[in-house]
Amino acid sequence: MNKPDDKKHDDKKHDETRRAFLIGAALGAAASTGLAPEAHAQSRDAAMAPAHTMAASDAHGAFLNDEDAATMTAFTERLWPAAPGKPGATEAGVLNYIDLALAGAYADQQDFYRRGLAQLDAYCRSAHGKPFAQLGAAQQDEVIRALEQGKATGFTWPTAQAFFNTVRTHTMEGLFADPIYGGNKNFAGWRQIGFPGAQPLFSDADMQSREAFTRAPIVGLQSRGDLLVKGG
């Protein structure tokens, strides 16, 4: 039987493996214009977001109610758990990003989320006697693996795998899209992969280098937009 210390070591290794996988998947995507094509398709004026998109990391209410927000907070944090000196999904504002997206660019997925979250909690109550948000981290990981592998029962639409894949995609968007869309708070996601943001100019040497860009501070669309407005 595993000792408590062995279990903690296994959990930590599992978290590190998950983070490494998502970082690898994000490196290429974050280097493009971002991970939210519908949002980026909006006009420049719309992109220069109003103040409400820069809300606190645990903000919600544009679409998600308190119960669903608690579930999404727990789910996204297990997909991208915090580590020493490295913010997790909660601190990075992923919940705020998803909430705002579902109230705006992803409004067509509202029923998908409503049904997916209801089916998720029904499965958790059946398998573990509690809703997802009240389970321990190890049980939450077990549930997430069951979703990913299509083994979670009781899912009709969306399917368990479709729900997992969508939440994972939106979690990555919340981590690595420009902060103007409500996530990536304080550039938490970009800092963890060494992405410098919307810099005004990259030299040929910068473009060829495989090293993290450190010549200038990380900046996002909001800062660039302010400069454009001031510059006329």
Number of strands: 0
Low-confidence stretches: 27-56
Describe the main β-sheet briefly: none
Strand percentage lies at under 5%
Radius of gyration, whole Å: 19 Å
The helix/strand series, from N terminus to C terminus, equals: HHHHHHHHHHH
Helix content: 55-70%
Helix- and strand-based class? Answer: mainly alpha
Principal-axis shape equals globular
End-to-end CA span: 68 Å
Helix tally equals 11
Mean pLDDT: 80
Structural notes for this entry:
- The structure is a single chain.
- The chain is mostly helical.
- It has a domain of 146 residues.
- Helix content is 55%, strand content 0%.
- Helix 5 crosses helix 8.
Keywords:
single chain; 232 residues; mainly alpha; 11 helices; 55% helix; 0% strand
Please outline the helices and strands.
Layout: H1 4-30, H2 37-40, H3 44-47, H4 66-79, H5 94-103, H6 110-128, H7 137-148, H8 160-176, H9 188-193, H10 204-208, H11 221-230
Helix pairs in contact: 5-8, 7-8
Short description:
This protein is an all-alpha fold and 232 residues long.
